[in-house]
Amino acid sequence: MMSRKTSEKDVRKVSVLGSTGSIGCSTLDIILRNPSLYRVEVLTAHKSVELLANQARRTQARLAVIGDKEKYAELKELLSGTETKVSAGRQALVEAAQYPVEWTMAAIVGAAGLEPTLAAVKQGSVVALANKECLVCAGKFFLDEVAKSGTTLLPVDSEHNAIFQVLDIEQRDTVKKLILTASGGPFWNTSIDSLRLVTPERAVAHPNWNMGAKISVDSATMMNKGLELIEAHYLFDMNEDMIDIVIHPESIIHSLVSYIDGSVLAQLGSPDMRTPIAYALGWPNRILSPSPTLNLAELGKLTFFEPDNRRFPLINLAREAIRVGGNASVIINASNEVAVKSFLDRRNCFLDIFKIVSRTLDKIKTRKIKCLEDVFDADEEARHVALDVAKLCEEG
Ligand code: NAD
Ligand code: MG
Predict the structure, then answer these.
(1) Nearest ligand atom owner, CA of 130
(2) CB of 203 shorter than 6 A to ligand 1
């Protein structure tokens, strides 16, 4: 890890990939509250052209990129009369991620974030990683690129950011367990029968966190914790049996590290992503964040429960994917993306998500990952198979 002391007068050049999403907007919120510390160079989005143009105007970004080529003319028009350059398409996203900056927020959702984030990594600055799919899909390959380019990777996912804050890297061999907390989402104590009737509206209404639709559904199925387990496995180089998961519905303790002397260190805070984002933006210093101050007396008590693997089998499937290795985690990630989309589009029911992911993994022969192409191939194959499985579930 790089140790770089910034003085108050340093202005850091930053890019925000996926700036119109939940994490992207929170990142810009903190940046705009600390105008003397940051200068926005690049902003990117997929389709939200108006929001992207507004953000570019407010931050006076040098470059705004829209993934959807059909929105290019609209973006150009919305930003006419400004200094902001405009481009569009997948390749433009990758080029934008290579723009020379000192700090990049990688907050594109899903496997679509892999290529742009890798481009940011190769550019060799500090990459704040919100997109968990990079590690889930490309794990070792991604970390090798980080090492090769001398990039500093800072975890933004609240659990991994918490562990990053309390893990004593110098004494890694004294770590007994990592303990990831999970809110459990809106249905952690809902019966299987009621789970059958869950609608997209109820699934995206997370009790504590305000997040994008995909991760909110992942939180409701607990696939999010499965993906985070894989993320933690790679980030902290821990076997899956060294990583425990505990349900903590209040989302106040964001994760813990248990040491061999019996000490358990935790990071606490209000459930507001602006805290881990501010940590990554300020690192190695701390900066002001507007997150509400935690009031423990007002909270009164914190509660913890064992996850129910019978109702939420995707956590164990993620453990299996780690043990199998190779492209198994690419397969579960891609099939989950298909299943979540199909559920949000009301083609499949909530419980189908579990079936689609596990049946897709069963149907595909797992292979080693030797290069990035292997990741894309596995991703594509899994999406095809998952679509077929989803159709069968829909009909059945
Ligand atoms: P979101 O859906 O709110 O936003 C996603 C962003 O990515 C948007 O700017 C969108 O325009 C862009 N995007 C979507 N598809 C794209 C594509 N195909 N190509 C290029 N850009 C595309 O998502 P989010 O909730 O902000 O999550 C972003 C990432 O951060 C995810 O990987 C998620 O797992 C992770 N994360 C989110 C939270 C949270 O609280 N929201 C917490 C931890 C981790
Ligand atoms: Mg998380």
Answers:
(1) 1
(2) no
| Domain residue extents for the chain | 8-131, 160-395
Whether the predicted pLDDT of 311 surpasses 80: yes
CA of residue 23 to ligand 1 center, whole Å? 7
On whether the 160-395 domain is CATH 1.10.1740.10, my answer is yes
Residues 6 or more apart whose Cβ sits within 8 Å of residue 285: 5, 6
What is the C-alpha to C-alpha distance for residues 387 and 223, in angstroms, rounded to an integer?
18
Query: Is residue 124 a contact partner of residue 149, using CB atoms and an 8 Å limit?
Result: yes
- In words, the CATH class of domain 8-131 is alpha beta
Does the pLDDT of residue 96 top 80, yes or no?
Answer: yes
**What confidence tens digit (pLDDT) does each residue in 64-86 have?**
999 999 999 999 999 999 999 99
Whether the CB of 157 sits within 6 Å of ligand 1: yes
| pTM exceeds 0.70 | yes
Residue 49 beta carbon below 6 angstroms from any ligand 1 atom: no
Indicate if ligand 1 lies below 6 Å from the C-beta of 217. Answer: no
Q: Is the CB of 22 under 6 A from ligand 1?
A: yes
Reduced to 3 states (helix: H, G, I; strand: E, B; else coil), residue 34 is: coil
Closest residue by CA, ligand 1 atom 23:
212
Count of CB atoms situated within 10 Å of the CB of 256: 22
For residue 31, CA distances in Å to 15, 105, 162 come to 11, 11, 21
Predicted confidence (pLDDT) at residue 6 exceeds the cutoff of 60: no
Q: Which residues surround ligand 2, an ion (CB under 5 A)?
A: 157-159
